């Protein structure tokens, strides 16, 4: 179809733009921040040793449907080694919770709680919120509060 015949795209509202900006933060930027924390606890040169030692526990998590087949394939590839750069935020959070015993919560921590675990909990909470949001918009006041809650008060993760 010729470009001139394509209907004009409607412009996004401020609320829709806020949603997309926040989704971008959580989908593209936050995993990089989580990976920094992950690599601190599971250093790349020793990750596969930890995964080998933890195989029974991870298979148990797979049986309980906490981990799925594609995640297990990332952890135990048929060729080569597992790398954090291949993992998404959900898998890294799961490993930090279950192998490092970090207390990463499903609920949004109070803004006054400043720790790596609280920071990761915030990222996890809002990433799940974005993934399950069917509205596709965030008003200006909520956007600012959420953005600050994820970025500006989280020096452990974003700095």
From TrEMBL:
It comes from the Eukaryota. InterPro entries: HEPN_DZIP3. Residues 47-151 form the DZIP3-like HEPN domain. Pfam families: HEPN_DZIP3. This is DZIP3-like HEPN domain-containing protein.
């Amino acid at each position: 179809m010729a470009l001139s015949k394509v209907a004009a795209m409607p412009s996004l509202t401020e609320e829709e733009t806020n949603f997309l900006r926040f989704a971008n933060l959580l989908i593209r930027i936050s995993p990089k921040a989580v990976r920094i924390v992950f690599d601190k606890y599971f250093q790349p040169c020793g990750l596969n040793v930890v995964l080998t030692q933890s195989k029974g526990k991870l298979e148990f998590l797979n049986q309980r449907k906490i981990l799925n087949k594609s995640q297990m394939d990332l952890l135990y590839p048929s060729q080569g080694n597992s790398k954090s750069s291949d993992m998404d935020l959900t898998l890294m959070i799961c490993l930090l919770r279950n192998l490092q015993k970090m207390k990463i919560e499903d609920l949004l921590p109070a803004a006054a709680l400043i720790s790596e675990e609280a920071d990761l909990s915030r990222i996890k909470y809002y990433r799940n919120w974005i993934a399950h949001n069917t509205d596709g918009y965030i008003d200006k006041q909520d956007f600012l509060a959420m953005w600050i809650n994820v970025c500006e008060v989280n020096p452990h993760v974003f700095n």
